[in-house]
């Protein structure tokens, strides 16, 4: 059964951390909606990848989605910079309601804003790990970690494992 997947995205996302998981999810028949600060387009770090933002964060409700994908790069940090905390609250809905969340590389930064990481086992890009620990998570250095409803990975090198476990969690 097709799931509705929200993808939160801003400029300077890691191109392949968006394109590869989205392709894997679409290949399984899932519907993807890209959500940003406003509609329009955002560019990846390479600036070769341009993605259309389908919906602005102010125009959607997390209840309308079954799962959340948070690609890495600088995008998660920029989304955390939203003064109203909309992306943190949006993400919190998924963690709180045990809906699947897929976060790779710097993506787990957005999970910190949920204040719900205590006892969760996660991984991420090296520079994010201490922040996750400070937020109460148990951090490990593995290619993919599945903890309850959350799938995390470290870098683009882990995409095969990340995509596999993300797709499996939706079955």
Automatic annotation (TrEMBL):
<dbReference type="InterPro" id="IPR006286">
    <property type="entry name" value="C56_PfpI-like"/>
</dbReference>
<protein>
    <submittedName>
        <fullName>Type 1 glutamine amidotransferase</fullName>
    </submittedName>
</protein>
<dbReference type="InterPro" id="IPR002818">
    <property type="entry name" value="DJ-1/PfpI"/>
</dbReference>
<dbReference type="InterPro" id="IPR029062">
    <property type="entry name" value="Class_I_gatase-like"/>
</dbReference>
<keyword id="KW-0315">Glutamine amidotransferase</keyword>
<dbReference type="Pfam" id="PF01965">
    <property type="entry name" value="DJ-1_PfpI"/>
</dbReference>
<comment type="similarity">
    <text>Belongs to the peptidase C56 family.</text>
</comment>
<feature type="domain" description="DJ-1/PfpI">
    <location>
        <begin position="3"/>
        <end position="167"/>
    </location>
</feature>
């Amino acid at each position: 059964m097709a799931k509705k997947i929200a993808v939160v995205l801003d400029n300077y996302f890691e191109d392949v951390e968006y394109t590869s998981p989205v392709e894997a999810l679409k290949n399984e028949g899932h519907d993807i909606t890209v959500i940003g600060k406003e509609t329009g387009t955002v560019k990846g770090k390479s600036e070769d990848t341009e993605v259309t933002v389908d919906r602005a964060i102010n125009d959607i409700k997390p209840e309308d989605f079954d799962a959340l994908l948070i690609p890495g790069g600088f995008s998660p940090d920029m989304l955390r910079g939203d003064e109203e905390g909309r992306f943190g609250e949006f993400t919190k809905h998924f963690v709180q309601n045990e809906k699947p969340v897929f976060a790779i590389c710097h993506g787990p930064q957005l999970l910190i804003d949920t204040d719900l990481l205590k006892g969760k086992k996660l991984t991420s890009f090296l520079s994010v790990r201490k922040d996750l620990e400070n937020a109460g998570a148990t951090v490990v250095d593995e290619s993919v970690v599945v903890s309850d409803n959350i799938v995390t990975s470290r870098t683009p090198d882990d995409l095969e494992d990340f995509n596999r476990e993300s797709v499996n969690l939706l079955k």
